[in-house]
Amino acid sequence: MAYWLMKSEPDVFSFEDLVRKTEKGEAEEWHGVRNYAARNNMKAMAIGDEAFFYHSNIGKEIVGIMKIVALAHPDSTGELNAKGEVVWECVDVQSVKPFPRAVTLAEIKATPELSELELVKLSRLSVSKVSEAEWKLLCKMGGL
DNA sequence: GCCAACGTTGGC
DNA sequence: GCCAACGTTGGC
């Protein structure tokens, strides 16, 4: 079981949007990732892996937990290459639970134990890894 | 709105 | 295969 962190701009797709879909029994395709490192992380995901949902730009905070419900598959919004293949892939996710308290980027940066978090070190990576120790600490900071 | 970090592209 | 130019992301 691995842990991840995935970013979305909430005015495009927010955690609340994901909760609404999950309540209807639907899953969300995490489409639109156009970065190889992020794609490789998604290909490494297993069903049941959990991920933090981070609101970038607006909020800049971790707002909840989601889980991987489908392995990486071709991105339905992905462009085709010269051979007619879809280059980009993505996983499907559903919400698990919101954080009682959102954990802001400022708080994360102020926490020495989180100084190695990929969210901090590789700020432009939209799908990053989280270690088990980091995961537990962030859950605690989020009030879980 | 600016800028730093970083990925991608294209000329050589 | 190197590197400069350019585009994009995301924090401030």
UniProtKB/TrEMBL annotation:
<protein>
    <submittedName>
        <fullName>Ubiquinol-cytochrome C reductase</fullName>
    </submittedName>
</protein>
<dbReference type="Pfam" id="PF01878">
    <property type="entry name" value="EVE"/>
</dbReference>
<dbReference type="InterPro" id="IPR052181">
    <property type="entry name" value="5hmC_binding"/>
</dbReference>
<dbReference type="InterPro" id="IPR047197">
    <property type="entry name" value="THYN1-like_EVE"/>
</dbReference>
<dbReference type="InterPro" id="IPR002740">
    <property type="entry name" value="EVE_domain"/>
</dbReference>
<dbReference type="InterPro" id="IPR015947">
    <property type="entry name" value="PUA-like_sf"/>
</dbReference>
<feature type="domain" description="EVE">
    <location>
        <begin position="2"/>
        <end position="141"/>
    </location>
</feature>
